[in-house]
Amino acid sequence: ERLFFLSGIAFALSIHFKLYPIIYALTFYNSLTLKRGWASLFDLNAARLRFVFGTALTLILLTGLFTYIYGFEFLEHSYLYHLSRKDTRHNFSVYFYMLYLTVEEEDIGISLLTFLPQVILLLGLTKKFGNWKDLSFCLFSQTFIFVAYNKVVTSQYFLWYVGLFPLILPKLQLSKSEAITSGLLWGFAQGSWLLPAYFLEFRGYNTFQFIWIESLAFFCANIGLLSKFIRKYRELCCTDPVCEVHKVR
């Protein structure tokens, strides 16, 4: 049982070094019970209490320590900056063109509004797959959604879900043709975005609208791929005789 406290410490460290793992908080918490439904959130068992305490204590200590050392600048660049960040270069996001057109405006409401689709979808995935048996698939799907819907998407963000893909690949049972088609679709959608981006960055041409159109195409490709993965995963679970969690559902 001590491992749950240590897991909380490790989780807090990951949030401290890279903020995005915080999206897994409810999923990890939800997976530490056999009960189902929103009422299960109030099942305060020992595992949950240890995990939450380890996470909260470590985050408070780390945040307090580095705020003491670096002052408000630490809070600004580690946490608050992400609420108002606008990136009009190297950005695959569907919000790219909107951010470009409003780059001079200090309207934090626009930035906050972009988080709404992410929050709704992350909660939905937690409700559907946030249990111990589906944990790896839930983490992958949440990361994929978080990146696809984020207002800033750079190439390094793809590593966040690519690193989790090997955990779920055996559970998808993709045929060779499906795997090749999926890889080509993702690669082509990304490559087609890079062409107008090249002309903007290296040739100085005004290709902002073309980049935005390619961002929409890349977004659609990503959502199409995730929809396929979810469908394949659910098909496998529905035919798996030992998938007790899904039988209960």
Structure characterization notes:
The protein has 249 residues and is an all-alpha fold. It folds into two domains: 1-84; 89-242. Helices cover 72% and strands 0% of the residues. Helix 1 (2-17) runs parallel beside helix 3 (46-70) and helix 3 (46-70) packs across helix 4 (72-84). It is globular and about 60 Å long. It comes from Caligus rogercresseyi (Sea louse). One of its GO terms (biological process) is GPI anchor biosynthetic process.
Write the layout of secondary structure elements.
Layout: H1 2-17, H2 25-31, H3 46-70, H4 72-84, H5 96-101, H6 108-113, H7 115-129, H8 135-148, H9 158-162, H10 165-172, H11 176-203, H12 208-239, H13 244-248
List keywords for this structure.
disordered C terminus; transmembrane helix; 2 domains; 13 helices; 249 residues; mainly alpha; 72% helix; globular
Helix/strand order: HHHHHHHHHHHHH
Total beta strand runs: 0
Largest sheet: none
Helix/sheet category: mainly alpha
Helical proportion? over 70%
Number of helices: 13
Average pLDDT, all residues: 89
How many distinct domains?
A: 2
Strand content: under 5%
Family: Belongs to the PIGM family.
GO cellular component, one term: endoplasmic reticulum membrane
Organism: Caligus rogercresseyi (Sea louse)
GO biological process, one term: GPI anchor biosynthetic process
